[in-house]
Structure formats: C-alpha cells, structure tokens
Specification:
Elements lengths: L2 H11 L7 H24 L2 H21 L5 H25 L4 H23 L10 H28 L3 H23 L3 H24 L11 H22 L9
Helix pairs in contact: 2-3, 2-4, 2-8, 2-9, 3-4, 4-6, 5-6, 6-7, 6-8, 7-8, 8-9
Length: 257
C-alpha cells in the first residue's frame, strides 16, 4: 500500500506522453511541419535570420518544457515542433551552407546519436522514455530528440537527392522502415525500447519526404502545393490534435493516476 503513493508521485513527474496511436500521428505531423516550415522560412527571409529565429524558438520551448513539473501536451509538443524546425535547419546548414554531402552528415549524426545513447545508458542504465522523471534524464532525452531530427533530415534528403529516389519513393521506403520494428517486436520479440527508438528515427524522414513531395514545385520532384500552404495545414492539424489530447487525456496512462 505504501508503494502506491510513491508510484503515483513518480508518474506525475513524468514529462513525456504515453506511446499511443495519437503520439505517432502527432509526431509524424510535426516532422512534416518542421520540414516545410524550415524550407519556407529560409526561402522567404534571410537564412541567417531564419536560423536565429529557429534557435531562439527552440531555446524558449526547451526552457518551458524543462521548467514545468509534469507532462503538459501543449508545452511538450511545442518543444517537439521547434526541434523539428531547428533540426531541419541544422542538417540543411551542413549541406547547403558548408557543402557537406548528405551521406557524410547522415554518418555524423548517426555517430553523434550513438554517443548520446551510450552516455545516457552508461549514466542511467535505461533508455526507456517513461523513466523520464529527473532533470538529467530529460536532458539526455531532448539531446536524443534533437539529434534524431537532424539525422532523419539528412537521411531523408540523402535518399531523395543523393540516391535519386525522389520524395515519394523515399516516403514509401520509410513507411516500410517505420513499420518494421513494430512487426519485429510483435513477431520476433524485438526489444521494445530498441523498436521504439528505431521507429522514432524513421518518423523524421517519413514525414519530411511526404511533406516535400506535397510542398515542393513539380520541377523539384513535388506536386506543387507550396511549403507555406502545407505548413499552415499541418499546424492546424497539430493544434487540433494537441487540444484533443489536452481535453481527453488519451495520452496519459489513467491506470497509474
């Protein structure tokens, strides 16, 4: 009986949502929105100013997320959105600004992610996101999230442009890669934490590939809806779903409350 209040207190300190179908839908929408919003900003205002705005927005979002004492959908997903926008800019700066090939940046971010995972596990002995109830674990979590977005951006651009698969074919490829860990977990008993992080990484190039396909002009391999239009539609969908989560609490495990 004494353990129940402690368990409840730890649950209330958790800073991340439950992994439900809504989590994956909103995550995919944020990856797509981050791609098109980044592209829109750097093409309509000075790229340096755009990156500065992205960095400032990310700092504000992360400070808010770190300050709050529990999971709040609007705060959490605002941080994810800003990571999506700035993560896209970070990967694009390496390629467009510094001329680094997408293959090189993909390898770089993959190594960086492996180092973060290694340090996280060595320090905390777990990579489970539902153990996020201390500041140190939360810092590891957000370092991981930022790196996965940068890695996914570079990976998606590499398949679409360097490997010449195009945005639509790349998106279809990443649908398969996104589904594989879930199937492996179900059929082969793949470790759930490994399956989660692999799928999480794949959401970035998956969402971004379809966003680029819809937003890019036809001569660039898209269907020409425009990055601004796609960003606006995705933003409305994200706000609607986050509001729904806030009202219904479907992203909170009520059995533990």
């Amino acid at each position: 009986m004494a353990a129940q209040p402690v368990h409840k207190a730890v649950h209330l300190l958790k800073k991340v949502p439950e992994i439900t179908i809504f989590f994956w839908i909103i995550k995919l929408l944020t990856t797509a929105m981050g791609e098109t919003t980044s592209d829109y900003m750097v093409n309509h205002i000075d790229p340096v100013i755009a990156v500065a705005i992205g960095a400032f927005g990310l700092c504000i979002a992360l400070v808010l997320q770190l300050v709050v004492r529990r999971y709040i959908p609007a705060v959490y997903w605002f941080a994810v959105v800003m990571v999506a926008i700035f993560g896209t800019m970070a990967a694009d700066v390496l390629h467009i600004g510094l001329g680094i090939p997408y293959l090189t940046s993909t390898i770089f971010f993959a190594v960086a992610l492996a180092v973060i995972f290694g340090a996280w596990y060595a320090t905390e002995k777990t990579l489970a996101i539902h153990s996020i109830y201390t500041l140190r674990r939360e810092l590891f979590y957000w370092m991981t999230i930022i790196t996965t977005f940068a890695l996914g951006t570079a990976l998606g651009d590499m398949t679409a442009t360097t490997l010449h698969l195009g945005y639509l074919t790349s998106g279809l490829l990443f649908i398969v890669l996104f589904a594989l860990p879930g199937l492996a977990c179900w059929l082969l008993g793949l470790n759930e934490i490994l399956a989660f992080w692999f799928a999480y990484i794949m959401t970035r190039p998956l969402g971004a590939s379809f966003a680029d396909w819809m937003g890019k002009p036809r001569d660039a391999g898209g269907i020409g809806f425009g990055t601004g239009t796609i960003s606006l539609v995705l933003t409305v969908l994200i706000i609607a779903l986050v509001a729904y989560m806030t009202i219904t609490h479907k992203d909170i495990d009520r059995k533990q409350v």
